[in-house]
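Model: You mentioned two targets. I'll fold them one after the other.
Researcher: Yes, keep them separate.
Model: Target one:
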Amino acid sequence: MNVFPLSNSKMFDKLLDKATSPLLIATDWQSILQLCDMIKTQEVSPKHVIQVMKKKFRHENAHIILKSLQCLESIVKNCGGLVHKEIAQKDVMELFQELIKKSPDQIRNKVLEMIQCWSYGLGEQYKILTDTYDLLKRDNYSFPPLKESEAMFENKNIAPEWHDSKECFRCRQIFTPFIRKHHCRSCGNAFCDKCSSKSCPIPKFDINYDVRVCELCYEKLTTGISQISKPISSSKPISTITSNQTKIQVKMNDEDEESFQRALDISRREAEEKENQKKILTQKYALATNQDEYTKLNQTIDQTTHEEKENIQNEVKETTLQTNNFINEQEIDEFTSVVIDHINNFKFRMLSNQQRNRNITTDTVVQSIFVMLQQAYPHLLHTIQLIDHTRTYYENLQDKLTQLKDAREALNALRMEHYERKQQEIFERERQRQIQLAQKLDFMKQKKQEYLEYQRQVHLQQLAQQEFEMRTYSDQQRQLILTQEQCLQNSHLSSMMSHDYSQMPYQQPFNTLHSQSTMNQYPIITNYPTQPPHHGSMITCPSNTPNLMDSNRDNNYINLARHIPLTHSTVSYIQQQSAPMINENKSDPQLIIFN
């Protein structure tokens, strides 16, 4: 399991950018070898490698494409079957065919060479490589001459694939959220924390730093190292080497053992100090629980401040020691140049003695150079340790920086999520407020419509009331006018009755009935008009006004219309045809009176 998969992938991308930079004059083999080591140790998955390579192949710059092809070639040759599986895919082969068709000659030749090598070395395992090779041959592409040395692919000395399982390979304990699963980098099996608690480098997989291994692999690796170191130390001296040289070698081996034991003692002391600090902290915590809350708070604050101060002082001391232990590059260069000169002199002297058949024991120059090299050897080991220490120190700093960058990115992502959540809450609140306002507005509109309807009803009632009052008023006026006209008419009739009609001018004589006959003997002919005439200056008299009658030859009554003049008025009444009323009490009527 990768502890920091994101940082490893980013480191791989940076190394790949460095190896495929268009500013490089020659190929950067150091960064390419680092890429291969990262893939071998499974710090980066092969899928991620192929995806990044595809992006590089689609770049516009031809130099970057050519450098990425060189990187992919070295990765395929050195990183084994996991990368071979990812290469032998349909989309990768189609991408290579596009590069052959669209790219310039240099890139085309490189891709053809790679496909030819892969089909020769891996065609038996992956048929798609041979198929693409045959298709390109059919399209009449010219392949460069094949070199068998370039078609060699390394499948050995590669870390095995991790095997997934639900229980420990050794103790058969089932994995849970509290019992986590770990993989051995040497055998690839899954183990629990107890069974894979040890760590050591694995030279056969080119892993030169401590990684997690199981106990069985740890024993194999450590015993293998001791067995390799034993024959070197116990090998018999050559006849040409003197007893002094053998003593010097024994001393050197003793010094190495002593330094190793010292390192073990230092590590044990550090572990014991950590355990003692833990015990002291637990005792302090137990004492603090028996005291009051106020004392608890004070003690915890004092402890934290004291611990922080101690940590800061320890870090300062460590940094000062580390900086003091660092050696300048000039000193290292001078020391290495001196050692190289001694080694060259020793080599040339030995070759000259061998050619002249001289004895090495009698050559004082060889012995002096050998003694000088033996004296320089511990200093050389010390410088190597210091360089390794500085390298690990800077690697730890780099890891911390990557952790800080990842933490910063995670924090920024959380901030963005929090900001988006806040914006969504504000938007939802605004939407709810808009909905409430719309509901209130609809309610107010409904109230307004009701109020307008109420005002309209009130206005209609007022208009009806006014119309009723006007109608009553007009009826009263009409009745009043009628009564006045009746009074006037009655007064005129009475005046007319008091005058003699025979002496009146423009008066036609009335035909009277015989005295001997009665009114019952003659039929009365009446004619009622269906529609009264309307004249502006004439007023139609009602039926109760008197009418003048005339008789014809057949002694029938005829209703004659007469104009009755009215005094003190310009209006003339017209008596139309109506039924006469006869007064039967008089025997000889001279005038017919109407009711």
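Model: Target two:
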Amino acid sequence: MISRLPHNGAFSAMRSRWFGSLAAPAKEPRSIPFFEADKDMPQGVASTLHEGAGELPASQQSILMPEAVHEVARLPPASRQSVLMAEADQHMPQGVAENYRFWGQKRTVFVKTSKGCRFTDVDGKEFVDFRLGYGPIILGYRDERVDRVVCEQIMERGTLSGFSSGLDSEVARQIKGLCPQIEKIRFANSGTEAVMGALRTARGFTKRNRIATVEGSFHGLYDEMMWRTDLDNWDYDGKTEPHIIPAGGGIPPVSRDLMDIIVLNDFEKLEDLFKVRGDSLAAVILEPIIGNAGSISASQEWLQRLRDLCTENGTMLVIDEVKSGFRVAKGGAQELYGIYGDLTTYAKAIGNGYPVACFGGRRDVMDAIGSHQGGVVHGGTYSANMIAVSAAHATLKVLAETDANKTIDRVGQQLMDMLGRVFEEAGVENHFAGPPAMFGMHFGPNVPTNYRHWRTTRSGLYQCLDFAEVDLLFVVAGFVVVIVVIYVLFILHYVHCA
């Protein structure tokens, strides 16, 4: 969620660490509509802060053809982003480096500067960013405690050598200190790679091939993990099961052959899985808190039963903490539950925005990796490069030695309280799921217990953009009130970034 707040002098003068200081605009900001919303921006509703003239940065000029640079210079500030998008569209599919950055031709954002919890786009509009890079920026943009360490390390040792540095084992030690279930780890470059490494290791250790996932979870962008239940074309009558379909094109049907999908918090389907697949199941992988489905969560009892069944059947329990790791608690979701996996994947918050990930777990399982006969192959040119491990080292040090996680929890709880009051006063039934550091909002009489239930509800503010026009108007009006309340709260409490 990204929000742009209305500009005024009092807000400019406020210097909270949550927002950072407001840069002086190049010209007196003019008032523009409090909210701009359209269905061309499916991943969020934005409210306008202000526009400044500003200059197109050299880094953006360098990616344009010379004639395009001149064209941008002649245009009013509000048009610069659209010109950049038109130019980018000539070189990349949809004009973006990866699918999830595309918010439509009119609303795709090009960033000029960022600091703390805010960024400025190339048109001079300033935003408060509640998403922070899909989750990695746990300490805020350009945190000097991390960036300084990274710069020092690469100036001394370079970015990559292909050899060990000693810092990789130090980061492993830090992770083990926060996460008691981790005995050994290996590094990766993304959450997708970490999941691939963990599942290959589970297969190598168990000598089995089948993998089960939980409906609605997200485990990266490789073929086996990109199968989902087709709930859009399911009638929810409870008598039939939805079809399993690929999440997009280019995913071969054969990648489905060794996959099973179970339903969160459904004991009957969980028992059936192990009755049918128990002796061939290498691993069950899940997010205990499903970040892409409004943070609906596994119940304590269901997760414990899954843990017990995995142990009884020699199946590896792989807990995906790419989103929740080091965020919902220093030891992640497993610390909250007190239930631990055989293997765990981490990414996102571990490096405060630098590309670093890892997977790890039981010593005997991880020791299946190696160059010995029949050993699991794991590697990567950029794994544990100096940029990655120095960022992880600095970030984990801050998280371990400060009350950053308590700050995140406190702010999350304040947001939940405010949002709850707004909707209650409007007579809108609402509930929250997940811990304060990673909460989701749901409309209706109950918190959904699984993905199927979630899909039958109006289960997230982003989702409302796809509903009828009256719902869209409700969301916009509701957010106006929410932003005003947030604005007042931040002034009163001077909330800090972690």
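Researcher: Noted. Anything on target two?
Model: Residues 85 and 333 are 39 Å apart (CA to CA).
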